[in-house]
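User: tokens in, sequence out, please.
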């Protein structure tokens, strides 16, 4: 299959591209970060998807069978600072891409987020009504709605993920690892719960979604949940680092611009049922994160940047 991945230089995009390129012909679109095409196992296109005609040109040149749309303005505080760009990238572009995908007949998975919920209750299902608290969350929720309005065959995958990135600074796992390895104390929120899934594990999940012809809204997160403090503790212990450097803290005392939702635990029963198997757990993901580290995977990723 010919698979197009937008936002291919990001945390999710690059890991999906490397995993899926093992068995499929992968095409990636990146905007700001320049990658070394000569060492990539996939075809790279440089494009700003916010520009008029960029999406049409990309689909015409690549002619994909499947699209995984990862490109977004994902930094919550950056969205607060530039709401117009957040609206364009997170809401308008997904709707335009979904329209094109429906027109040319290729399948689409659009990546959304758990932050569309306010986190007051937790254990949200796909049937629960969202209540986004930040500009990022509101723009992502609008993106979901625009996609489903124009493309009933599309899949919306709400995710929360971690893993190794090209910059080495894109995930919470990297945050804890980098600081603890350097002997620096860090804060860990004891009042923020989440269900992080390893980015690499999403490659198999998305392949199975495509192969089974699924459509609609799905929660594609870990089947387990824990606090961000406990996540840091687990990272420290797995990598043999000093977990006493992680100081318990409250998100309410943090100097964050965008409002954070405290209990972003999502139910994955719907996707597990439709795929016929339980989604990977957090501790399983940390084991694989460590195994990738032992193989030099973080260094390999960082070598891909020009």
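Assistant: Sequence out:
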């Amino acid at each position: 299959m010919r698979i197009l991945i937008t936002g291919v230089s990001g945390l999710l995009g690059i890991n999906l591209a490397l995993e899926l390129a093992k068995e499929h012909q992968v095409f990636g679109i990146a905007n700001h970060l320049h990658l070394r095409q000569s060492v990539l196992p996939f075809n790279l296109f440089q494009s700003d998807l916010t520009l008029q005609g960029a999406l049409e040109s990309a689909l015409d040149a690549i002619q994909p069978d499947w699209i995984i749309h990862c490109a977004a303005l994902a930094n919550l505080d950056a969205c607060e600072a530039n709401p117009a760009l957040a609206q364009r990238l997170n809401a308008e572009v997904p709707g335009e891409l979904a329209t094109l995908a429906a027109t040319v007949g290729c399948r689409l998975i659009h990546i959304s987020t758990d932050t569309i919920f306010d986190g007051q209750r937790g254990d949200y299902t796909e049937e629960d009504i969202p209540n986004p608290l930040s500009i990022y969350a509101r723009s992502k929720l609008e993106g979901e709605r625009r996609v489903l309005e124009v493309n009933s065959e599309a899949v919306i995958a709400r995710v929360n993920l971690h893993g190794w990135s090209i910059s080495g600074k894109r995930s919470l796992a990297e945050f804890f690892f980098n600081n603890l390895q350097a002997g620096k104390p860090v804060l860990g929120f004891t009042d923020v719960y989440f269900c992080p899934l390893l980015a690499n594990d999403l490659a198999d999940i998305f392949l199975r979604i495509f192969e089974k012809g699924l459509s609609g809204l799905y929660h594609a997160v870990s089947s387990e949940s824990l606090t961000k403090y406990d996540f840091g503790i687990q990272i420290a212990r797995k990598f043999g680092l000093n977990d006493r450097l992680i100081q318990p803290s409250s998100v309410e005392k943090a100097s964050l611009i965008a409002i954070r939702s405290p209990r972003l635990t999502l139910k994955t029963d719907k996707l597990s049922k439709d795929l016929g198997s339980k989604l990977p757990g957090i501790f399983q993901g940390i084991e694989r994160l460590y195994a990738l580290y032992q193989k030099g995977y973080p260094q390999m990723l960082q070598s891909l940047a020009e």
